[in-house]
Amino acid sequence: MELSQILTFTIVAALLVMSPGPNGVLIAKTVPTSGKTAGLANLLGFVSAFYLHGALSILGISILLVQSAWAFSIVKYLGAAYLCWVGVKALWAAYQGIGVTPEISPAKRKRNLVNAYVEGFLTNALNPKVSMFYLAVFPQFIESVSGAALSAFFLVFIHSMINAVWFGSMILLFAVLAKGAKNPIFQRWLKGVTGVVFIGFGVKLATYRQSF
Description:
- This protein is mainly α and 212 residues long.
- The protein has one domain.
- Helices cover 81% and strands 0% of the residues.
- The chain has ten helices and no strands.
- Helix 1 (3-18) packs parallel to helix 9 and helix 3 packs parallel to helix 7 (113-125).
- It starts with a helix and ends in a 6-residue tail after the last helix.
């Protein structure tokens, strides 16, 4: 694989990672209420899901999501349902904070690290557009020669590292901001906005149509 191919893929992958999406919203919701460690657990879930999508693409399984409308619809609606569920949970948490004691106990609000990891993993794993990104991009950079699978996983590694750097920086930023964001009113506002945005992503995914 030539250096020019690697650089081109890196640029494309970076643009995908930095574009607004549910990953950033999940980080924005997790860090202020559950801390930097929980945000890093989200991030680990993101990275794991990238390797899952990459493996499925390399093995050819994700082709089913494009060639089979039935399989695509199942994954699409599972992803949409999950995003909407997260959004509804955030809105419900915001609603529960209204009219009650303004002090929010961090211990009760902190996510278990396993749960934070699963949230991050599912946010990426249940998104068929990520699989289709790999399906559309990989053929342009992987040659049909010996070692193609290794080269493909190298690109997945690049993609995951871009993801780690970008969202790692976001986690650190929110961790700093969170020190001045302990106000319960701010936390309820953040959860409310997060809920609306996640539901919006879920609806957008549910109405997404294949272009292949």
